[in-house]
Structures are given as C-alpha cells and as structure tokens.
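Students often ask why inverse folding is considered easier than folding. One informal answer: many sequences map to the same fold, so there is more than one right answer. In these notes we will look at a single instance of the problem. The structure comes first.
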C-alpha cells in the first residue's frame, strides 16, 4: 500500500524497486500455478464463507511476515512442504490486492479483474468490487470496506494521472528524508521479475 503515496520503487531501485515486482509475481504465481485458483490477489479481507464472515488475514505463505505463513484459503493449507494444487480448496481473492499491482503488472492486473467480474457476477455491485470472493464456491463477502475502497481509488488515480497522488504526499521534505534511506538499501532478487523502473 505504501507505493500509493511514496515512490518507493523509484527512490530505492535496489530495494523496493526489486521487491515490489517480485511480490506481485509471487501473488500471480501462487494464484494461477501453485494453488491453481485461476485468479490471484490475496490479502487480509472478510471471510466470504458462512454466517461468521469475520475479517482475517489471507496471503501467500512464501511472502508473508508470519513465520508460519499466511493462508490464501479458508482451509488453511500449510505451505511447507509445498502441497499439490488440489490441497488449496476454498481460495479467497480480494480485488483490492489486484489494484495494488497495477504499477507493476498492469496487463495481468486488468485481465485478472476482468476475469473476476466476468466469472463472479455477485462480486461487483453498484460501487465496484465487493471485499472478497471464495473462488471455489462463488461466495462473496458483499461488503464495501473503506480501507479497500481507498486503496482501489488511490491505485486507479495514480494509474490514470501519472502517480499524482504520490506527488501530494512525497513532497520535497519527505523526499529529502526518505530517498537517501531507500537508496541505501539493497535487496537480492531471485524471482526473475523485471525490476520496476
């Protein structure tokens, strides 16, 4: 979410400029190939299943901060050792995560969003995408969360207006403090994604 407001990838080309494209690539690889959901975009959201639709963490285990990994599905399929795709049942996708990928994989993000809207009619309402979709059952958490809607609108605004929202937050004072810190960081990439320029 930080790149909505601060051009981390541009100010830290050897750190966040490497990390963000790899992070998006990991989301895509997990959703399409590892878990074979047919869609991608895991992040904390409402649970679309059952009467108890509490907000919970979802994610891709290999890129999560939790040492035990985050789960991309309601059945909490462990990632270690890597299970076969058939173990990933009740996968949950949240559209706001896909919008955050727009600067790094715009074509893949737009195609994924189009597929979600086409295949899950109940996932899109009068104000846009709802919070989350169980891509196996088709259940939708039909909530508009302010956090999600804010990220979606900010991502769209940046995409359409050449990162104008970043310009409002990343002024000269912020740049003077953050850019040297970000330039000093170096991350090693092994994901094969093209670094963000």
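Output (designed amino acids):
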């Amino acid at each position: 979410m930080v790149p909505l407001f601060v051009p981390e990838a541009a100010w830290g080309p050897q750190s966040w400029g490497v990390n963000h494209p790899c992070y998006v690539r990991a989301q895509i690889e997990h959703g399409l190939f590892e878990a074979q959901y047919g869609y991608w975009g895991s992040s904390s959201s409402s649970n679309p299943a059952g009467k108890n639709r509490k907000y919970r963490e979802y994610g891709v285990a290999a890129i999560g901060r939790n040492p035990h990994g985050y789960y991309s599905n309601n059945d909490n399929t462990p990632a270690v050792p890597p299970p076969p795709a058939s173990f990933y049942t009740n996968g949950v996708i949240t559209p706001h995560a896909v919008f955050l990928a727009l600067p790094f994989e715009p074509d893949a993000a737009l195609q994924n969003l189009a597929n979600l809207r086409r295949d899950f009619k109940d996932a899109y309402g009068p104000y846009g995408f709802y919070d989350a979709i169980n891509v196996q059952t088709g259940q939708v958490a039909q909530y508009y969360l302010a956090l999600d809607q804010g990220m979606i609108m900010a991502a769209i605004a940046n995409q359409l207006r050449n990162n104008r929202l970043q310009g409002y937050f990343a002024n000269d004072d912020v740049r003077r403090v953050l850019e040297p810190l970000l330039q000093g960081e170096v991350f090693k990439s092994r994901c094969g994604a093209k670094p963000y320029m």
